[in-house]
Amino acid sequence: MSSIKLKHSSGNGVSISAPDTNPSSDRTLKLPSIDADGIVATKDTSDNLVSVTGINGGKFSNRNLINNGAFNIAQYSPDGSAVNESGFKTVDRFKCQTSGVDETITQEQGAVGPAAGTPYNLGFRRSYKITNGNQTSGAGVGDLVKIQTTIEAQNVAQSGWNYTSPSSYITLQFWCKSSVSQNFYFNLISRDGTMQNYVMETGVLVADTWTKITKTIPGNANLTFENNADEGLRLEITLFRGTDTTGTRALNEWAQLTEATRMPDMTSTWYTTNDATFSLTGVQLEVGDTATNFEFKSFAEDLRECQRYCYTYKVTTNNFIGNTSCFCNSTSNVKGAFYFPVTMRTYPTYISESFNARFRAGNSSNNFNMNTLTHEMGDDLTDFPRHWGFNVNTSSVTGGQAGLLQGQAGGLIQFRAEY
């Protein structure tokens, strides 16, 4: 077996030896290609790496700046049903935005099964699936279908990315599948200061085939990210955009966002195909110039991250509504609070389906509709909201009693702090 020995001036050295078995072809061991010194990683007696402080210039854990990139969380549609509507309607942190459509699109938390091949084998089981409507009037100049998610400004500012330096990078990766073969554009938009736009393309996708897209994006002197919870960096994946907002736009470089030319003109094949589909999974954005393996998290971790932006509580008949406390302010009024499992991004908006509940105590109130609760008190003046205070009018209660809310029918209540 051949080897190369690097000898120390005192006599001993380190040998680099050929492999024990003959490889099927020649292999290459690459030295660092950046203008910096490097070392060979070493291991201890338990085969653990030592003296390694990061991966690809980033962190070991919590590398992914995107929340819910594997689409395991769908608080907006807990029963898993598809929704014929735009906005935040199914999976958390991602929405489908439309304009000018003749027939509404359908969005759902899709499944990734064994037939998907590589994404399934890598561990992905869920996707974000968009199904086109029947756009009978064709591709209008103001029409739009896009997928969008946003990263908080402070999470970008504190990510370790030296975003004003063109030699510092972030890397975006995702898997996508279209039922129609065409090229799609996607872009990153900085939302602070003078907004900047970085446009990329998938290349022509093979119909009904999962394809991995990977792009490395440099910093730029014009980028600004404030250290706050406002919108920082937006990812948009566009399925169609009309010519009112497309035109001459260079790819793979930062430029000031111009509404009239957000990206190059798009082909309309997907948009003009009735029931065309587009699926997405494995979305990851990380600091560094190389795409690392997707950072899978436990369901609990994913849910907790998403609950900063949306907290959903599913009420069932005759069961108490958890995370609440309340008392009778008078014989006809109940006050109380909902408590959130995590600090929400900003003071949330309360949304409830139409269903009845009651105040349950020594003597219970008459029924009232949960969508009649009004905001009163709560953490609306703090940067770290943890509860939402409410007031509701009812009857047949005794002032001064403490109690709980009890659902008289099934329904959903939500607190939303999305962008």
What does this molecule look like?
With 419 residues, the protein is mainly beta. The chain is 4% helix and 36% strand. The protein has a seven-stranded antiparallel beta sheet, with no helix packed on it. It is globular. The termini are far apart. The model has no long low-confidence stretch (mean pLDDT 92).
The best one-word shape is globular
Counted by DSSP, the helix tally is 3
**Mean of all residue-level pLDDT scores:** 92
Give the neighbour order of strands across the main sheet: 21-20-24-17-18-23-22
The residue ranges in which pLDDT falls below 50 over 5 or more consecutive positions are: none
**Which H/E pattern describes the elements?**
EEEEEEHEEHEEEEEEEHEEEEEEEEEE
Rounded radius of gyration (Å): 26 Å
Largest sheet: 7 strands, antiparallel
Name the assembly state.
Answer: single chain
